[in-house]
Every structure is written in C-alpha cells, then in structure tokens.
Description:
By secondary structure, the protein is mainly α.
Amino acid sequence: MLTALLWGSAFVPQREAALAGLGAFLFNGLRFLLGAAILLPWVRPFRLPSRAFFGWAAIAGTVLVAASVCQQAGMEDTNTTAGGAGFLTGLYVVLVPVVMFVGWRQRTGWQTWAAALIAAAGVCLLGIDDHYQVHRGDALELIGAVLWALHVVIVGRAMKQIDVLLFSVGQYLTAGVLNTVLGLTLEANTLPVLANYWWAVVYVGVFSVAIGYTLQAVGQRHAPAADAAIILSMEAVFAAVFGYLLLHESLVPRQLIGCALILAAIVVVQFKGGNADLIEGGRE
Length: 284
C-alpha cells in the first residue's frame, strides 16, 4: 500500500514539471539515473552480471523509455487531471493478460474480457470531453498503459533469472541514458526549467523509482500476486487524492464514474487468479 501511495503521489510533481515545460525525455532521464544511483550501493559487490542480465536490462529499459515518455508527455495537455492520468495508467493491470494473449497466446478467462469492456467504458467517460473529443494527452496515456503492461510482462519473466536489485539498476541505467541523450538532443531548450523544478525530479527519482520499486519487490515476496495487484491499483486512487489536495484538481461526475469503472475493471480481472501469475514487476 505504501508503494501505491508513493507511485500515486508522484503524478503531482510529474504534472507540475510537464506543465512548466520540462521536456519528457530530460525529466525521465534524470529521474531514472537518480534511481539507479540510489540502488547501486545495495547491489552485491564483486558479482559479475550474467549474459541474460544485459539482454533483459536492454529490453526492459527501452520499453521503460517509451512508456515513461508517453506518460510524462501526456500530462502536458491531458484533458483529465493528475488523478485522471493515474486512472488511465492504471489500465496496465487489466491489459497485462491481454498482452500475454496477443504476444504469447496465453489463454485468458472471461473475467479479462469483461474487465476490458468495463475499462473501455470508463476510459471513454474519463478521456472524452464535453465535445466528444479525445485529447492528445489522453491518447498518449492510453498508449503508455499498453507499454506499461508490456513492461510488467517483461519484468516478470526477467525476475525468474536475474536478481531484482541488479536488474532494476540495469534497466534504470538503460532508460536513464537513452532518455538523457534524446533529451539533450531534442529538448535542450527546456533545461532552464530545471532551476525551478529540480525538486520534482528528485522526488520522483527517490520516492517513486528507488524506494517504490524496492518496497514493491520486498512486499511481493510475502503477498500473493493477486492481492498485490489489487493493492497496487490503489495508485490511481492516491493520484486523484493528491491531485485534489495539492493541485486543487477535481473531476466532474462523468469522469468520477469513469474512474469507478476503471477501478472496478482492475478488481474484476483479478478474480480466479486473472493475471496473478504475471504481475511480477511493476511500473512508474
């Protein structure tokens, strides 16, 4: 639950930095590099990485770049709030079994498809404005949710072969370096924004990336995966709460109904195991 709280609270500084004009690549590059630097001292010394480590770290880190950039860029002009973006991102819990079915032909039960339909209705209510238009930011958040689901699957498979801390550092370094290079190339003009919004990078890098991921890994050693997935879905609720408390954001009744439907879909997909055996890693 503390992990979900930290991840949900991170939507506030992420949205603040995005609205201030800090480039998505630069923001993500710095936060992932900071997260890697914090975790690095905890990795066992004098332990050479296996060959599998480099492959999984490269794949997961690359997907992490795409997912995090879609999420951060979407917050620049999303039609919803920080809380709304949190709920759209939370769709990854529903999409994990769908990704497994499409990519690996793993069968899914009726719960998955029922949850997908419920979630789709929720997304429509949350993301479509009063003029029945879907904003660019909402579309990016949805694409990000698909990529987060793919990332969860990749992390779950990698965790069967690699130490969790070593893998985390590897994927964060990959994502950090790729994001930073792209940021300095494409978004160098947004660097001055860091003078006022460095705190957003520090908060997300420390609490969301370094501490959040570590607490999640420790918690899932003891909590059943289905229970953990439901608890982690509270990230979306915390995002809405922090958006209301700190940014004075609110959702109209139509959007609140959409949020409720998405949260219901996240719970429905867990019935009878749902994607329980797939949720081995996380996002944010």
